Amino acid sequence: MAVQTPTKTKRIPMSKEEFRLLPEGPPFYDYVNGEAVEVNRPTGKHSQIMFRLASKLWEHVHAKDLGDVYSDIDVELPTGHTFGPDIVFLSKEHLDRYDEASGDLYGVPDLIVEILSPSNADYDRYEKFAYYHEAGVPWVWFVEQDTLTIEEFCWQAGGYLWLGAVRGGKVFKPKLFPDLEINLKDLLGAT
Question: Model pTM?
Fold first, then answer.
């Protein structure tokens, strides 16, 4: 599947073996179609959103014994592409996809959350999103860091179904977790 992203990203041709030998960043890289794709280091705001949202999800998932939540973890999809989503959820049935020895996830997570910043929004929304669909990732959330808007998408054969968007300050009730309520503005103590 050839996918183009509207934003220029630095790409370095290399084998999967060479990619695996790269040191932990910065710079940070995804691996797509035989290339290491440089991704930007998160800003402080991005990191705070990731930490608070991952904590909220972790608390909910563990209270309900649903599985586990990871942030800033490498995910190697069955397609061979490797990405570093901001947050992932694995249901109890899929916990074997996490490899403790490497600290990475091999397979399809049940949910991927991407926090969008101006420097990465196009790459996440267009290129990565298409590859997530190709791999069959069931749920994807996008979080816009400036407005704290959360969008929820559910996998369908022809493409992701957009289930809606909730702006920061409003309560987000995800279809994936019907008894969870998230208000990012409150969660971050934002005014």
Answer: 0.91
